[in-house]
Write a sequence for this structure.
């Protein structure tokens, strides 16, 4: 995916003319200005998107982020972390996440944990080069 | 309503919240399964579940595209698959123009399908021959090749039409010894076949699918609506 025109065309072909474009535009504009960003979470995107503060657009935000992290778009990469009891985050790979979901095992302790799904967070990180290229093509 | 009594929106994408948000959204329904795919089998399983959702989405509103050429309908499928994080191409050149190529390129997983207007079993036969003799389908870690055949049907009695195609497949050159199996996802509107690929000499397993786009309303307003009358000819 090389230009923002192509990206938004693809996004609207997938989702129609909805709020997904607003979410994507707001986020890309932010990332272009803040290249140092490494952690994109729900709170950040809510703040960036007009009308999203109450949480009413959360499903649109998630749709858009997963689209931007999609195989053929690859502006973002999906990441996971679990917060330990002392509030420290620990990164998880896909296999650990899969095991946690399927087996309900806490990846930090190895213990059975029926609430592990509430403890693992998904977030997104940008591919700085891809964002830069998109910004240049857009500019 | 007292706002203090409302449940506050979750503040993060915990897996629990993601699963809740994904429940009723066709694009996110299988999101975590897609993200955590590591083997070709897992790719194929979640892709087939996703394609079932895409087909059902098309079948929900066939009146919106009554005279659409098959290429345009295949593009619709590819567009929705992009929204599900796949890299989905329509008419990708590879030994000819493959109707639908779906991939997770980071893992080098690929699946292809031939899509045809299902006007008769002859159309399906042609599609099957293209799929099985012209293109190179993706291969799983079990050494089996996998592909799909999608028929866009705009005639009544889809289950019966698929039954006819299932029977006719066994007279297609090269597929006479196919082993057939029922489809757990689409029931009478799909089936699986497997035969040895002539060129590669390995099993080729094909998911045959019928997309029911028939729209012939018999109620008073449907009978009178000009926009649906063309569909009756199909």
């Amino acid at each position: 995916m090389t230009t923002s025109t192509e990206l938004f065309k693809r996004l609207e072909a997938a989702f129609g003319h909805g709020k997904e474009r607003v979410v994507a535009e707001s986020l890309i504009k932010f990332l272009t200005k803040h290249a140092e960003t490494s952690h994109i979470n729900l709170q950040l995107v809510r703040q960036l998107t007009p009308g999203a503060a109450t949480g009413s657009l959360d499903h649109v935000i998630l749709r858009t982020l997963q689209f931007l992290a999609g195989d053929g778009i690859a502006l973002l990469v999906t990441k996971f972390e679990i917060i330990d009891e002392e509030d420290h985050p620990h990164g998880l790979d896909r296999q650990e996440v899969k095991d946690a979901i399927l087996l309900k095992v806490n990846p930090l302790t190895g213990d059975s944990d029926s609430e592990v799904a509430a403890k693992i967070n998904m977030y997104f990180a940008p591919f700085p080069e891809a964002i830069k290229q998109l910004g240049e093509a857009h500019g | 309503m007292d706002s203090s009594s409302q449940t506050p929106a979750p503040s993060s994408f915990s897996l629990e919240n993601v699963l809740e948000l994904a429940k009723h959204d066709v694009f996110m329904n299988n999101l975590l399964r897609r993200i955590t795919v590591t083997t070709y089998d897992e790719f194929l399983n979640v892709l087939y579940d996703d394609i079932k959702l895409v087909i059902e989405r098309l079948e929900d509103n066939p009146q919106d595209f009554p005279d659409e050429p098959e290429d345009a309908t295949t593009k619709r499928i590819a567009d929705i698959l992009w929204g599900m994080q796949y890299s989905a191409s329509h008419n990708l050149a590879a030994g000819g123009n493959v109707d639908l190529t779906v991939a997770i390129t980071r893992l080098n997983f690929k699946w292809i399908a031939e899509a045809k207007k299902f006007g008769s079993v002859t159309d399906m036969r042609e599609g099957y021959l293209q799929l099985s003799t012209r293109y190179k389908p993706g291969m799983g870690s079990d050494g089996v090749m996998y592909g799909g055949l999608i028929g866009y049907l705009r005639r009544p009695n889809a289950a019966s039409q698929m039954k006819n195609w299932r029977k006719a497949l066994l007279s297609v050159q090269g597929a006479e010894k196919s082993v057939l199996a029922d489809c757990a996802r689409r029931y009478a509107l799909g089936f699986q076949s497997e035969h040895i690929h002539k060129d590669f000499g390995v099993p080729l397993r094909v998911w045959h699918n019928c997309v029911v786009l028939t729209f012939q309303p018999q109620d008073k307003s449907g009978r009178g609506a000009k926009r649906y009358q063309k569909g009756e000819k199909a």
